[in-house]
Amino acid sequence: MKFTTYSRFTGDDLGVSVEDLLRALSDFLLQSGFHQQYMRFHEMGEQTLDDLKQAIQEALDSGSLFSDENLRELMEKLHQLSPEQMQQLLDNLAQRMAEEGYISISEPDQQGQQKVQLNPEGGVGENQAGRVRFELTDKALDFLGFKTLKDLLASLGKASFGRHDTRDLATGIESTGASKSYEFGDILNLDISETLSNAIKREGLSMPLKLEYPDLMVHQSEYQSSCATVLMLDCSHSMILYGEDRFTPAKKVALALSHLIRVQYPGDSLHLVLFHDSAEEVPLSQLARVQVGPFYTNTREGLIVAQRILARQHKDMRQIIMITDGKPSALTLDDGRIYKNAFGLDPLVVGRTLDEVHKCKRHGILINTFMLASDYGLVQFVQKVTEICRGKAYFTTPYNLGQYLLMDYMNRKTRTIH
């Protein structure tokens, strides 16, 4: 039996690094179903190793993996490879991605379970190659999140940023404001010079110097708020219709936001909710596998799930970030059935959805909406949401969604907390 063996490439790998591969393949690895528009939602993540190798070959042929200095030389070298040498190159690049922990390779067994299946030489049998699946690891998701965040910040002209700033001053470790008299409950971050100066003014230069309670002065620092965020992501069918993939950019922004919060805002929390015919919370670790399906838009159910999540969070701020391209068109009835109407603004669907928006307002939850379309029904609905919750609404495109969302996240201010 003939085998395709995966092993570390010992020949000329054309200078391709695994990190460069991930950058070039980010759209493929985070694909939304744009090229498979009739795939069901629960059949997501069915990418095979052959698909990966085909994507690598397309990246090689496009020249995106080579620097401008040696592009011509390496492209000529690439075209001189025989089919067998090209296959060997693709095999080893895929294996290097697995060895460095960016993908895990497995195949379904007869019971439908996933298991790793390698031949004695470390490869996969050629007759099985078409069935071998791969999945992105947490390491790959973290890398893609960092890459997307870096690209977005570069387009914003920002090199670095800190935590959420507010107009309120509080006692803390980082001193950025004038000193104040110590009050019970303040962090005892003493301003030594001001404290001693007060005592000297009262007592004179006598020794020992007696300090009294009114002498105490403490540094003030900027109050930095914590925030609990639920990202509501529309995965209805319209997100990949009309010749445009809106879902992949939204997934990239979610990865970037996750990386931003984990690195820069460790006190914040981020949860992901997908809404379609229904809605459910999805772990961020599964974000890369999420795809759209032939679904309607059940915005109300997404708000219900988001409120349930935020009720468990004890943060200064609680907010919902909703990314959508369509008006509400579905509703979960009391008996569990899904009521659907994609034509116009259905009064029943819109009315019950706005009821949930009112509940968000009563619970102090802010809703910011990022619209990826500008049809009349969506705009009218979003205007009503922002009017109720006093949130923000942005009309964006897949190309500037990330800039708008990250700038909004970093520029938020919170109310004074007593």
Please tag this protein with its features:
single chain, 418 residues, alpha/beta, Rossmann fold, six-stranded mixed beta sheet, three-stranded antiparallel beta sheet, flat, disordered C terminus
Q: Can you give a write-up of this model?
A:
The structure is a single chain. The chain has 418 residues and is α/β, with parallel strands linked by helices. The chain folds into 3 domains: 3-136, no CATH class; 167-224, no CATH class; 227-411, 3-Layer(aba) Sandwich (Rossmann fold). It has helices spanning 18-24, 26-29, 49-62, 71-79, 83-99, 138-156, 192-203, 247-264, 299-310, 347-362, 376-389, 401-411; strands spanning 3-4, 103-108, 114-115, 124-125, 133-136, 165-170, 177-181, 217-224, 227-234, 269-275, 279-282, 317-324, 330-332, 338-340, 366-371, 393-395. The strands form 5 sheets. Strands 11-10-9-12-15-16 form a 6-stranded mixed beta sheet, with helices on both faces. A 3-stranded antiparallel beta sheet has the order 3-2-5. Helix 3 packs across helix 5 (83-99) and helix 10 packs parallel to helix 11 (376-389). It starts with a strand and ends in a 7-residue tail after the last helix. The relative contact order is 0.11. Residues 1-11, 34-45, 110-129, 158-176 and 413-418 have low confidence and may be disordered.
Summarize the structure.
The chain is of the alpha/beta class and 418 residues long.
Mean pLDDT value: 76
Q: Which superfamily, in CATH terms, is the homologous superfamily of the largest domain?
A: von Willebrand factor, type A domain
Largest sheet, if any? 6 strands, mixed
Across the major sheet, the strand order is 11-10-9-12-15-16
Q: Given the helix and strand composition, which structural class is it? A: alpha/beta
CATH top level of the largest domain is Alpha Beta
Beta-strand portion reads 15-25%
The total beta strand count reads 16
Question: What's the order of the H and E elements?
Answer: EHHHHHEEEEHEEHEEHEEHEEEHEHEH
Helix content: 25-40%
**Shape assignment:** flat
Question: Compute the gyration radius: what is it?
Answer: 27 Å
Query: Segments where pLDDT lies below 50 for 5+ residues?
Result: 1-11, 34-45, 110-129, 158-176, 413-418
